[in-house]
Amino acid sequence: MDYAIVMGEDGMPQMTYDKADNIFNNILLSWTIRRGAFVYRPTFGNRFHLLKKNTARTEALAEEYGKESLQWLLDTGKAIKVEVTALRDGNDRNRLNLLAEVTQADGLIVTFSHFVRIV
């Protein structure tokens, strides 16, 4: 069973003991855990840490990495569609804004936004 993760007032995720009714927590974990961090599932997570320079090419790579990290939702049947959009932040040249729109198997659309720091 998946437990719900909610975003606290401080912007940090907080675990609950409530049953999750959508795949928000799956997206959150996929986008906040670095690929290779789980020993038993080395392909889980994202490769956002590989992004080095904030250019148009980096935006395209961020979208690709975002989709790649969510592919398992499609493979397991939890989702039927994944869309990822990346935009450079106008106020901070070292940050990308990512938005995921994932359509669950039951048709519910779950959105998740995430900032990626570019070093």
Descriptive key words:
Nuclear Transport Factor 2, Chain: A; 119 residues; alpha+beta
Concise summary:
The chain is α+β, with helices and mostly antiparallel strands. 24% of the residues lie in helices and 34% in strands.
Q: How many DSSP helices?
A: 2
* SSE string, helices as H and strands as E: EEHHEEE
Head-to-tail CA distance between termini: 36 Å
CATH architecture: Roll
CATH topology heading: Nuclear Transport Factor 2, Chain: A
Helix content: 10-25%
Return the domain count: 1
- Shape descriptor reads globular
Question: How are the strands of the biggest sheet laid out side by side?
Answer: 3-4-5
Rg calc: 14 Å
Instruction: Identify low-pLDDT runs.
Output: none
**Percent of sequence in beta strands:** 25-35%
